[in-house]
Structure formats: C-alpha cells, structure tokens
Amino acid sequence: MAYEIPVTQARAELAELINRVVYGGERVVVTRHGKPLVGLVSAADLERLETLAASAADCAEEPATTSVSRLGSAPSAPGERQRFGIAADHRGPEVR
Fold it and tell me: Please, which of 20, 48, 86, 92 could form a disulfide with 81 given CB 3.0 to 4.6 Å?
C-alpha cells in the first residue's frame, strides 16, 4: 500500500519523499482534503506503467481487427442483390 501524505506536509518534505520513492521503493500518494491528488512513483515504475498502458491499448484494438478478419466473405442472402440493387458480385483475387 502507498504512503499517504497531505499536500501541505508534502511541500515541506519533498526531498525526503523523493528519497523514499527512489531509494526505498515506496509509492507516495499526496492528498488534499483527504482525497488522493497525485502519486509519486520512481522513474522505473513510471516506465512499467507506460509499457502496460501501451500494451493494453494494443490489446484493446486487436479483438475488433481479429473479428473482422475472421468474417471473410459470406454468401449473399437470397434476394439480397435485387433488394439493395447490387449489380455485380464481388470476387476474390484470381488464382493463376
């Protein structure tokens, strides 16, 4: 769990808080009126968080892409071409 400290006290103890984060491996949450305001984490923790966020964004896009690519081509429903006025069938690339 992170160490919580009010913003007024954090101002006075900033150098000590930085040392606790960098050398002690702690995470510090600065609060205002008892509510979390900001978090102090080491540069290594920040890098890990950014890497996780980037990979989560990649994963969030992947399912839609995978779903669309799995659809492929499906046969038209009976009467669909007449109903929507489709003049030609789509054909995939010719195999030579």
Answer: 86
Quick one: pLDDT band at residue 2, thresholds 50, 70, 90? Answer: confident
The whole-number average pLDDT for the span 59-78 is 56
Which residues, in sequence order, are CB contacts of 78 under 8 Å at separation 6+? Answer: none
Angle at 60 between CA 59 and CA 64, to 5 degrees: 105
The CATH code of the domain at 3-62 is: 3.40.1620.10
Q: Which two tokens stand for residue 57?
A: 């964004």
Torsions phi, psi of 4, nearest 5?
A: -105, 140
Q: pTM of the full predicted structure?
A: 0.56
Domain residue ranges of the chain, discontinuous segments joined by +: 3-62
